[in-house]
């Protein structure tokens, strides 16, 4: 079974047209998700694992460059499709830094709690603005991800407002 990172790497190659390991790493590095952008250094080892498992193939790029063109194999296609359809893992709540901190905020002194939640609210509003700005240029794979991120961020803002009103 693929890890989340491996599934995302395969999708970057197959679905988003990233042809080189450098391009795949760049997609992770520029991700709006801190967890994914922090995974950029894990991309090269993941590509090696996927290649070793026969899920991707690399071929020299034309023009004598040292970079290798990546392609998902038939086995990789099947693994990616199985990963995408795994209901238990797809329905998992995953790593969520907001959810992880939410209970801790409630233990803070009222003034510190309000300040922390206001700061988080401002960061969320900036995230929403960035997603809304970038939505028009999103490809068919990234667009639903961005729309879901927008919904999640708006739900987080609602929770902050409700919590502060109590």
UniProtKB/TrEMBL annotation:
It comes from the Bacteria. Residues 17-81 form the Transcription regulator PadR N-terminal domain. Pfam families: PadR. InterPro entries: Tscrpt_reg_PadR_N, WH-like_DNA-bd_sf, WH_DNA-bd_sf. This is PadR family transcriptional regulator. It comes from Caulobacter segnis. The lineage of its organism: Bacteria, Pseudomonadati, Pseudomonadota, Alphaproteobacteria, Caulobacterales.
């Amino acid at each position: 079974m693929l890890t989340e990172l491996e599934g995302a790497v395969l999708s970057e190659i197959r679905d988003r047209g990233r042809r080189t390991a450098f391009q795949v790493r760049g997609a992770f590095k520029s991700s709006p998700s801190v967890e994914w952008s922090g995974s950029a250094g894990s991309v090269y080892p993941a590509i090696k694992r996927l290649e070793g498992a026969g899920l991707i193939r690399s071929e020299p790029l034309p023009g004598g460059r040292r970079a290798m063109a990546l392609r998902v194999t038939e086995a990789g296609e099947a693994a990616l499709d199985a990963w995408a359809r795994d209901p238990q893992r797809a329905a998992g709540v995953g790593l969520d830094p907001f959810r992880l901190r939410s209970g801790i905020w409630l233990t803070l002194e009222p003034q510190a709690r309000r300040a922390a939640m206001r700061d988080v609210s401002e960061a969320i509003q900036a995230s929403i603005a960035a997603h809304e700005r970038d939505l028009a240029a999103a490809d068919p794979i990234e667009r639903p991800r961005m729309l879901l991120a927008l919904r999640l961020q708006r739900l987080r803002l609602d929770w902050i407002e409700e919590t502060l009103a109590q």
